[in-house]
Design a protein that fits this description.
Rossmann fold; 16 strands; alpha+beta; 443 residues; 16 helices; BirA Bifunctional Protein, domain 2; five-stranded mixed beta sheet; single chain; RNA-binding
Length: 443
RNA sequence: GUGCCCUUAGCUCAGCCGGUUAGAGCGCUUGUCUGUGGAACAAGAGGUCACGGGUUCGAACCCCGUAGGGCACCCCA
C-alpha cells in the first residue's frame, strides 16, 4: 500500500458509495439463510448453478433495457474498451447460452444468485448494488416451462415465509392485441404498457389522460382501458377478452398460453397466489410473452420478484432463435419483508461452543476445541487467554454463543473441562467425551 | 433524473427567540471482584455538532454548495 504520511493514522475518511452497503455479520447470516432456501428450491427442480463475470462488454449489455439504459454503469478500461457492470442476470444468461451452445443441452435450466448494479436513486429496498436470484429455462417454448417458473417463484417466497404476496400474471401480446383492437397504433404499445401498469395506483381517468398525452387517440385509449377494467371485474377475465376481441389468432395463442399456465399451476402446488391481471405490463423491453410480478402490500416496497418470457434476447447473440422464460427474485426487498415481520428465526449465533482458556493452558484448550469440532460443533477457541475468564464468558454471551467450555490448568491436570451454560449459568466439570455426549443429547 | 424532509457521542435522541466550557439514556473502558459473564454501585473515555463556504461581535441553530440517509414521482428487484 502507499506509505504517504497522511494515510498512516486514520486521517482518511471511511466512506461508502451512495446506494452501496456493507453486510455486517448479523445481516450476512440472514442473507445466507435466505439464499440457501432459494437455492434449495431451485435445485429441487433440477436447476443448475451458473455464474458469470460482473463486467461485460458494454455492447453486450446495451439495447435490451430500453429507457433504463441510462441506469447502467459503464466506463472505459485502460485499453480503451467500453465496459459495463451487468444490469441484470438475464442478459448474461443470453450471452452464455449463445456462446456455449455446443456445451449446453437444451432446455437449459439454470439458477444464478449474484449482485447487479443500477445507478438509481436509492430508497427503501432499492440500492445501486443489489442481489438477484434468478431461475430461467432456455430453449423450451412450452407454457409448462412458464408455469414451472411461476411455481418456483411461489415456492421460493413460501420458503422464507412471506405472508401476503400476490403473483400477477399477464401477457405482452395479449395487451398488444387489445390495443390494436381498440384502434391504437402498434408503435405506441410501449406507451400503453406504461400507462396501463399504473391503473391500480392512479385510476382509470388518469391512465386514459396519460395515454392521450403519449399520443394515443382519446376514444381508442378509453376503449382499450374499458375492456381491461371490465375483464378484471369479470369472473372469467380470459374468456371475456376472447369474446370481446373476436377472431384474432395472435390473441388466441396468448390466451391459450395463459389458460394452460393457470390449469397446470394447482398441480404444481400453487393455488390462489397467482392471478391473471390484464393491467400488468412490466418495463423491460425484452419480454415478449407471459409476464409476471410478485408484489407485497406491506411493507410498501412494491414488487419483490418479476419475470416473463423473452423470445428474442438469446437470438440477438446467436444465429438462431432460442426462447427462454425466467424469474428474478429481489433479495434486498425480500429481506426487507423478512425483517419487517421477523419471519426467520435466528441461526443460533456464530458458534455453538466457546472454549475459554488462560495462560499456560492454551495448547490444552486448542486440543479440546479440535475435539468439539470433530464432534460436529461449531467451536470458537478464545483468542484472549490473557483476559479474565469473566471477560471471555461475557464475550461469548454477547456473541450469542450458548455454551462455554473452560479448559484451564486445573482441568488439564484432571483431563477434564468445565461446561457452562451461558443462559442458565449452570456449570459442571466432566470429561470432554461426556460433555460432547450431553450436548448431543440436548439437541 | 425531478421535488420535499433529514444529518448533534458507537446507538437512540435533547439542545428554548443565534449568546460563554454541547447534554441524557443505552453501550464502551476501569474498579469493588488476583479462574466465572449478565445485576448493582463508583469513576472514566468518547463530539472538527456530516463536510466546505458565507452572514454575524458571536453559528449546532440563519443562507449557499457538496456528500450521505429517507419519502413521493419516474422506473424497477
Amino acid at each position: 500500500m502507499s506509505n504517504d504520511s497522511e494515510g498512516k493514522s486514520g486521517n482518511r475518511k471511511p466512506q461508502i458509495l451512495k446506494g452501496f452497503r456493507d453486510y455486517l455479520p448479523e445481516h450476512m447470516r440472514l442473507r445466507q439463510q435466505i439464499i440457501g432456501k432459494f437455492r434449495a428450491v431451485f435445485e429441487s427442480h433440477g436447476f443448475e448453478p451458473l455464474d458469470t463475470p460482473v463486467l461485460e462488454y458494454l455492447e453486450v449489455l446495451t439495447g435490451k433495457a430500453g429507457e433504463n439504459e441510462k441506469l447502467m454503469y459503464g466506463f472505459e478500461d485502460h485499453g480503451g474498451r467500453k465496459i459495463g457492470l451487468r444490469y441484470d442476470l438475464t442478459v448474461p444468461l443470453a450471452r452464455v447460452v449463445a456462446m456455449h451452445q455446443a456445451h449446453i443441452p437444451l432446455p437449459f435450466k439454470r439458477y444464478h444468485i449474484a449482485p447487479v448494479w443500477r445507478a438509481e436513486k436509492p430508497q427503501r429496498g432499492r440500492f445501486r448494488e443489489f442481489w438477484q436470484c434468478d431461475a430461467d429455462i432456455a430453449g423450451a417454448p412450452s407454457a409448462l416451462a412458464d408455469a414451472e417458473i411461476l411455481a418456483i417463484l411461489g415456492e421460493s417466497l413460501d420458503a422464507v415465509g412471506l405472508p401476503n404476496y400476490t403473483i400477477q400474471v399477464s401477457h405482452r401480446q395479449l395487451l398488444a392485441r387489445v390495443a390494436v383492437w381498440a384502434g391504437i397504433e402498434e408503435g405506441l404499445a410501449g406507451q400503453v404498457y406504461r400507462s396501463v401498469d399504473k391503473l391500480a395506483k392512479i385510476g382509470p381517468d388518469a391512465v386514459v389522460a396519460e395515454m392521450v398525452e403519449g399520443g394515443v387517440e382519446q376514444p381508442a385509449a378509453a376503449k382499450a382501458l374499458r375492456l381491461l377494467v371490465e375483464a378484471s371485474a369479470s369472473d372469467d377475465a380470459l374468456g371475456f377478452i376472447r369474446d370481446s376481441l373476436g377472431d384474432d389468432p395472435v390473441a388466441d395463442t396468448a390466451l391459450a398460453e395463459l389458460q394452460e399456465i393457470f390449469e397446470v399451476l394447482p398441480s404444481m402446488g400453487i393455488t390462489g397466489k397467482a392471478v391473471f391481471d390484464p393491467t400488468l405490463a412490466r418495463g423491460l423491453d425484452y419480454y415478449t410473452g407471459p409476464v409476471f410480478e410478485a408484489v407485497v402490500e406491506e411493507p410498501r416496497i412494491g414488487s419483490v420478484a418479476g419475470g416473463g418470457r423473452y423470445e428474442d434476447l438469446i437470438g440477438s447473440f446467436a444465429n438462431r432463435t432460442i426462447t427462454a422464460t425466467g424469474v428474478s427474485l429481489g433479495l434486498e426487498r425480500i429481506i426487507e419483508v423478512v425483517r419487517e415481520f421477523d419471519l426467520l428465526p435466528g441461526d443460533g449465533g456464530s458458534a455453538d461452543v466457546l472454549v475459554v482458556t488462560m495462560p499456560g493452558a492454551a495448547a490444552y484448550a486448542a486440543s479440546v476445541a479440535s475435539q468439539f469440532r470433530q464432534a460436529g460443533f461449531r467451536t470458537e477457541l478464545s483468542s484472549q487467554p490473557n483476559r479474565s475468564v469473566g471477560d471471555q464468558l461475557k464475550y461469548g454471551s454477547k456473541k450469542g454463543i450458548r455454551f462455554a467450555v473452560i479448559g484451564g490448568e486445573a482441568e488439564r491436570e484432571s483431563q477434564q473441562v468445565a461446561l457452562k451454560d451461558l443462559e442458565s449459568g449452570e456449570q459442571r466439570t466432566m470429561s470432554v467425551h461426556e460433555v460432547i455426549q450431553s450436548l448431543q443429547q440436548a439437541e
